[in-house]
Design goal:
The complex is a heterodimer of chains A (252) and B (267). Helix content of chain A is 45%, strand content 16%. By secondary structure, chain A is of the alpha/beta class. An 8-stranded parallel sheet of chain A has the order 1-2-3-4-5-6-7-8. Chain B is of the alpha/beta class. Chain B has an 8-stranded parallel sheet with strand order 1-2-3-4-5-6-7-8, with helices on both faces. In chain B, helix 9 links the parallel strand 6 and strand 7. Classes of the chains: A alpha/beta (252), B alpha/beta (267). The complex binds zinc ion. The site of zinc ion has 5 residues of chain B, from loops.
Chain lengths: 252, 267
């Protein structure tokens, strides 16, 4: 079957230590997506992680403004320093086609919990704006993630790059307990039987498609999902519908 | 769009391009949950059929991690699905007496084994250690395949160690499992220097860039496909190889032609 893909896990920009096949502009990214038949993507800029969060968010905003197929993800910091989160934060998100936020607490040196983020993460939960986290960089520990979800049980959270080695022992308790907790698919597809077992246990609504571009191969994720041993309806949910539903629910 | 990619995307497999997975495992393992950890011949056949895997060559986790179980874990499994499975006789250098016995009895299990598997990073003795010697000599003399776990910078199975055994045992067909991961320049040098040394792609294609570098430098005639199954998914890995920009000819070499040559006298 031919699926419509909405990629939840892509970054733009060239990392300072080099990355095979990375792209600096939205034109280049859209070209890569066209080669693979990927229709839309949520994108962040690598400079948001490696360099300046403020300038990285700005560079991202500029790039995604050039293509209606690209949506943005801004990186957040504790509201107290007012570097990123100010009174008009959500209004600015809406104006700039930013549909979600991510955070790298371990790398950017803060604690992602209710001491620093109580009001903000309550509001994020109420507005149903997804928070993207990753296990593929210095971002958060499993203990930190468990604590965060316990403190904000209604938070919409998408975990990306879940791990090269199967991590079902970590993720299944979170899927069981927190209804708005989602997995990005690229490394679940990498795990033999990972997609099938997770769908059998929790349904297909809890997984959103991602490729991990430019680090991982896009065709790997596409081929696995297209021929996964699950129903066509489940494949459509994962390929694009779940992410679209998540974004439809959000109030910006 | 390449013809092979078109066919795989449409059907999930290719008539003219069967796939040999030269690096698999079998059975459960304590540090991870495997949805397909327990061997069942019907389920196994179903998984291999839908991805077009013609043969999986493996060594059981239980063999590698329990000298008390040893190679019988491989023998029972291959004999339940002999058309699709072969095994590597697993060696643990901490029990040299078991290695000697396994080599002595190797002929009895020619229907099961195509060679040996070494997991030196885990067993903590270098692949050139004397404990392995009976097996290396036997593989050298009989043209058997030896699948090594290899990793960049490892003192047990890094590129320098591969060089030692490749020089010493030119008759053995040495598969560098994980291709000395991360030290691709040394992987390339080993392939150039030794016609009996092959790169194997497990963990290489988790990220983009490694396969591209190897194939640019040495072509595809000494590269084989492998996945650490049941760790990694066959379709994911096939898609990754086909996304690396290689030609369909190169893909045929990697997916089946090189493996067919290696296995010709052994299966
Ligand atoms: Zn292995």
């Amino acid at each position: 079957m031919k699926l419509k893909f909405f990629d939840a896990n892509v970054f733009i920009g060239r990392p300072h230590n080099g990355q095979f096949g990375s792209v600096s502009t939205s034109e280049q990214l859209v070209q890569e997506m066209d080669k693979q038949g990927i229709s839309k993507a949520i994108v962040w800029h690598i400079f948001q992680y490696e360099g300046s969060i403020v300038e990285g968010n700005r560079m991202l905003t500029e790039e995604i403004s050039k293509s209606e197929r690209l949506y943005g993800c801004w990186t957040i910091l504790p509201p107290q320093t007012q570097e990123i989160i100010k009174d008009d934060f959500f209004k600015k998100m809406k104006e700039n086609k930013i549909v979600c936020v991510n955070a790298f607490p371990e790398w950017h040196r803060f604690v992602l919990d209710n001491v620093a983020f109580e009001h903000f993460l309550v509001e994020l939960s109420e507005r149903k704006i997804p928070l993207f986290l990753t296990m593929g960089r210095t971002c958060i520990t499993w203990e930190g993630l468990y604590r965060l979800m316990k403190e904000f049980p209604l938070l919409t959270c998408v975990l990306c790059d879940i791990g090269i080695w199967g991590v079902d022992r970590y993720t299944w308790p979170l899927l069981e307990k927190f209804e708005n907790f989602y997995l990005e698919s690229s490394q679940l597809s990498l795990e033999e039987g990972g997609i099938e077992a997770t769908v059998r246990r929790f349904g297909s609504e809890r997984i959103v498609f991602g490729t991990g571009f430019p680090v991982q191969y896009q065709k790997a994720a596409i081929l696995q999902l297209t021929h996964a041993d699950i129903s066509d309806r489940d494949k459509e949910n994962i390929a694009s519908k779940n992410l679209e539903r998540i974004l439809q629910k959000e109030q910006l | 769009m390449s013809d092979l990619w078109k066919e795989f995307l449409e059907k999930g497999k290719s008539e003219g391009c069967p796939v040999y997975d030269m690096h698999g495992h079998m059975g459960s393992y304590s540090r991870i949950y495997f949805p397909f950890g327990d061997f069942d011949p019907d389920i196994m056949k179903h998984r291999l059929d839908r991805t077009g895997i013609k043969m999986l060559v493996f060594c059981s986790h239980w063999t590698l991690f329990s000298p008390d179980i040893g190679n019988k874990a491989n023998i029972v499994v291959v004999r339940k699905l002999p058309d699709r499975l072969r095994a590597y006789c697993g060696l643990n250098p901490n029990y040299p007496e078991i290695i000697e016995k396994d080599v002595e009895e190797f002929e009895k299990y020619r229907d099961v084994f195509v060679g040996f598997k070494l997991l030196a990073d885990y067993h903590r003795k270098p692949i050139s250690d004397d404990a392995y010697k009976p097996a290396w000599k036997y593989a050298d003399k009989n043209g058997l395949i030896v699948l090594l776990h290899t990793w960049g910078s490892s003192p047990f199975n890094g590129p320098e160690q591969v060089r030692i055994v490749a020089e010493r045992y030119p008759g053995a067909k040495i598969l560098m499992g994980h291709s000395c991961h991360g030290e691709w320049d040394k992987t390339i040098k080993l392939i150039k220097d030794f016609p009996n040394v092959y790169a194997e792609l497990c963990a290489v294609v988790d990220d983009r860039g490694g396969l591209e570098q190897i194939i640019d430098a040495v072509g595809s005639s000494q590269i084989v496909f492998g996945t650490d199954w049941p760790w990694f998914n066959h379709h994911y890995y096939i898609g990754a190889v086909l996304d690396s920009g290689i030609s369909d000819e190169d893909a045929h070499n990697i997916f089946h032609r090189n493996a067919e040559k290696l296995l010709a006298a052994l299966v």
